[in-house]
Amino acid sequence: MQSDLERQVFHAVADLLNLEVDLLYFDTTSSYFEVDPSETPEEESLRKQGFSKDKRPDLVQIVIGLAVTREGVPIRAWVWPGNTMDMTVIKQVKHDLIGWKLGRVINVMDRGFSSEENLRTLQQAGGHYIVGEKMRSGKASIEEALSRRGRYQQVQENLHIKEITVGDGEARQRYVLVYNPSEAKRQRKEREKLLESLKEELEGLRQLPNEAHHKATCRLRSHPSYGKYLRQLKDGTLRIDKQTVRDAEKYDGKYLIRTSDDTLSAEDVALGYKQLVDIEQAFRTLKSTLELRPMYHRLEDRIRAHVLLSWLALLLVRIVEIRTHESWPKVRDECERLMLGHFSSKNGDLYQRTELTTKQAQLFAALGLDPPPKILGIHPRT
C-alpha cells in the first residue's frame, strides 16, 4: 500500500509542477530513538544500533533513504534497520523505482555508494550515474586520474574543473576533478592551526616525567586529528610527519566525480553533483522544521508511518516553496499573522478573520488556494 501511495503521489506532483525527472539525487540519514538500547528487544527488526549520522551511537536508530529531484522534490522515502550500511541499499532503490516511468534518469550519489557493484546496478536498463569517489581509496584508476596533468577550467566562482579519462574501450572511466580555491584556503588554514597546536603539545612532552610522558605520547598517537600527522622515531620520540603534511596539501579543495554518461559536459557533471546539497537540506528540514524526532514509537508499522507522514509533510513544504519562490519559514511566518477575531456582544458572537496583507494575498494566489472566508461564523443570541 505504501509503495502505491508514493507512486500515485509522485505522479500527481509531477503533473502539478510539470516535473521532468532527469537527475535523481539519493542519500541516507539516521534518526535515533529516545530509548536505552538495553530496553530494546533483540527480536526487533528496525530499531538497531549502527553508524549514527546524528553522532548518537549510544542510541538505537533507523536509517532513512530519500530520493530527490533536481528541484528538491522528494519523490520517495525508505526505512531500513539502524545497522544498514549505505553500500547495501542501492539494489532495492533501483528496483523500487522500476515502473515509475521516470524516463532517462541519471542517479547522483555521494562517495558512500560508489562500489563497483552499485555502479553496475545503476547502469541496468539504460540508467546512468554521477557519483563522488574517495580520493584516498588507493584504487589504481583514481590514482591515475589524480596524477594526470592539465589545466583547470573555471565554470563558476570557486568552481574549477578538469576532465580526465582513464582506460580505453568498455573499460574506460570518465572522471571530473573539481577544485574550489576558497575551500582549499579554508582547509589549509585549519591544518596550519592544528599543526601549531600539535607543535605546542610536542613541546610540552619534553617537560613530563617518564610515566606521564609515555601516557601523553600514547594519547597523541591515538588522537583522531593529531595522530595522522605524527611519526615515531626508533627512540620513541614523536615528530611531525612532513611527508604526510605534503600529501594532505595535494587534496585541499578538491573532490573527484565519476560518471557513466558521455553525453553530459564536464561542467554539467560538476554542477549536477554540486546539487547534492539539496538533499542535505531536505534532511535538515525533516529533522528540524518538521521535527522528525524525537521518536518514541516501538511498533514497526508506527515507525514506518511516522517517516511516511514526515515525507508527505516535506513534499508539501517543497511544493509551497517552488510555487511561491519563498522559503517555508517565511511563508509560515507570514501566514501565522492571519488571525481570527472573536467579537461578542449582547446580540451574539461574530468570528471574523483579519484583512489579508498584500503578501498573504500573493501567497494564496501563487498556491492556487482560496483564502479563509472573512466571516467564519455568526451566532445570534436568542
UniProtKB/TrEMBL annotation:
One of its GO terms (molecular function) is transposase activity. Keywords: Plasmid. InterPro entries: IS1634_transpos, RNaseH-like_sf, Transposase_11. Pfam families: DDE_Tnp_1. Residues 50-316 form the Transposase IS4-like domain. GO terms for biological process: DNA transposition. It comes from the Bacteria. This is Transposase DDE domain protein.
